[in-house]
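Researcher: I'm preparing a figure for a lab meeting and need a structural model of a single chain. I don't have an experimental structure, so a prediction will have to do for now. The sequence is pasted below. Please return the structure as tokens so I can convert it later.
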Amino acid sequence: MFGNISMRNFYTKQNISDSLKFLWEAGTHGGYANTSVTVNDSLVFISDLTGRVYAIGLISGKEIGQIKEKGTVFGSPIIYNFWLIYALASNDENETYFYLYDFNDGKVFRQDVLKGRVLTEIVQTDDGYIMVTEKGTVYKYNISGLPQWETKLEANVHSSPAFSSGLAIFGDDQGELIGVNSEDGKVVYRKNIGGLFLSGASISGQAAFIGNDNGKIYSFDFQTGDILWQFDSGYRIAMTPAYDDDNIYFGNLNGDFFCLNKSDGSLIWKYHSPGVFNVTPLITNNIVLAPDLKNSIKFLDKNTGELHMNMEIDGRPKLTPVIYNNKLIIGFDRGTLQAYEFIY
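Model: Understood. Here is the structure written out token by token.
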């Protein structure tokens, strides 16, 4: 799923090279939200803003098939067994169609209609799926796609949830941190700390991380909502923070990219670009892949922030890079996917 796991770490534990071999390019009908592809064995799944979800061959780059419905898919599909799980927001009505599509049989296994438009990522829990609508209604479905509960928050939400140990957490447009119990939908906490949250949340151990429109990154106890530390980046943050075992990584809309100590928020390094960082990076053991809105992906040394390589692309990057079987998959403006192979 988006962020690799329900806690959203965006971390692949491998060393990579900054030498790449181009493999293929594939096109889709529409552009992308700031999301990612999902890979399952030999298939790459990607949704676009015209309401299509595509299956593309990982080796060939050829389109295997597509699902087309009227509406917009803003988030990354989730793969569970042979189900492709996604949410399609209506363009005309205030509702979302929730699908479990059996891509092995090529037909819809189950679908339902939610009141409200889901503009953020679905998060898979231990036993189901949680979605939050733009107007702040939280929905839980079980693993087979049957509705379990809904909770109305009476607040606009543009922050993607993360999940751990029975809690789904996210921010809202009023500057609140919210934790919702996945068993019954009860709100465990709502704490107003100020600033619009467009950033999604990520969780590492007991700590969660989220950024706001005031340019601050917060670490907080994900079970209580209590702030552990905060760091002022100086400019708006729109991406979900990524992390590894020791540090967190994020950028802002001023072109500043940061590595902070996960425990206390102290600055490890900072990199500045004349571009904009609004897409979540991918973290590896040695390099951070940071999409820069100025038509490039920065390969930054994870320990120092030094620029290893400026990978120029023919458009503004829209997808968090994904690495699978030694292949790098990226996506940018005008609905373009590309795959590369690492050369060692």
